[in-house]
């Protein structure tokens, strides 16, 4: 296990602002919340980026090496996010539609049938101005306007089981699970930029990025391993096997620790979380959580990591820096899958994958605030807006 002091130093991955005019537009300025209580909960963000590290050009700077999520604290909404309606989007794999919920009333306010495929995730774009409902079987993305909560015309995209954006905003990455490949697109025109075959990554699934933005790690659910990818060159660097290669429901969601020292990798078959070093070279240990460990979500102050145990109906709460299990919250009869924390950090919204429900939990003590009946097969639920300067994709990984 890596010692905290060494991990902190190794994770001082500071990111420099790009100066090239050819790069993507800078993210909108982040505004601090106005109320005293909100201000108190938001972590301070220095105006000066930490320098001296070879980073991915074009990515917004990390201003706190101890917390790469420092700009995504409670209420720290960008201009684009402030313009959005506060809504929760629930895609369904079985009823093939997206339901929209008003989080202030817990009422379903709209239902949008979107074709004959499977709606997997609702994903915020890098600039946080568009949400995309991904349909892998239908080979398309349906854009939603977050200012109105309504869908637009579908965009042809190869097998978008999942969708991510490179930290510099230059590429959208379709995680083409059925094809065992990553397809890189221009995020504005949706022209194909590149295709990276990943033949040894069966069930290529979720992803996250190192602190410096130069390396991505993709989980391989049906191969019991992860694929490590160079972001700039779109090159496969290496494959890393988990200590036990589960291949039915193996590695699922992945999340970088706030200080960049490790990646946490949920493994459903293992009933827990693998810990991969921050350089993405070696699995250093295992954290047992609960049956069917699946989704990983950070508290708004990035001190806690919520692990959804889908087959057990529980959420394990971990210390986001050390991985220590702090407590476990139970959802009787539940199947918590994916979701996110609200902008103020007070609630954790999760889809109930196998029981046609959405759960709203208090992040203070885990009690069930509300259960909402939805359609068949609720999956990659998106709570919007989210704080932060830019989105890396999935259901709202923001930094």
Give structural notes.
A hairpin with a 4-residue loop joins strand 15 (225-230) and strand 16 (235-241). The strands form seven sheets. Strands 4, 5, 6, 7 and 8 form a five-stranded antiparallel beta sheet that branches. The protein has three helices and 29 strands. The protein starts with a helix and ends in a 15-residue tail after the last strand. The protein is mainly beta and 399 residues long.
Brief descriptors of the model:
mainly beta, single chain, four-stranded antiparallel sheet, disordered N terminus, 399 residues, five-stranded antiparallel sheet
Overview in brief:
With 399 residues, the protein is mainly beta. It is 4% helix and 40% strand.
What is the makeup of the main sheet?
5 strands, antiparallel
Give the count of helical stretches: 3
Helix content range:
under 10%
Described by the principal axes of the CA atoms, the overall outline is globular
Structural class: mainly beta
Uncertain runs are: 1-48
Strand fraction equals: 35-45%
- Report the end-to-end length measured between terminal Cα atoms: 26 Å
Q: Residue-averaged pLDDT, rounded? A: 89
Rg of Cα set? 19 Å
Tell me the total number of β-strands: 29
Helix-strand layout with pairing:
Blueprint: H1 4-10, H2 36-41, H3 79-82, E1 87-91, E2 97-102, E3 107-113, E4 119-124, E5 131-135, E6 140-145, E7 150-151, E8 155-156, E9 162-165, E10 172-176, E11 181-185, E12 192-197, E13 204-209, E14 215-220, E15 225-230, E16 235-241, E17 251-256, E18 262-267, E19 272-277, E20 283-288, E21 293-298, E22 304-309, E23 314-319, E24 325-330, E25 336-341, E26 347-352, E27 357-362, E28 368-373, E29 382-384
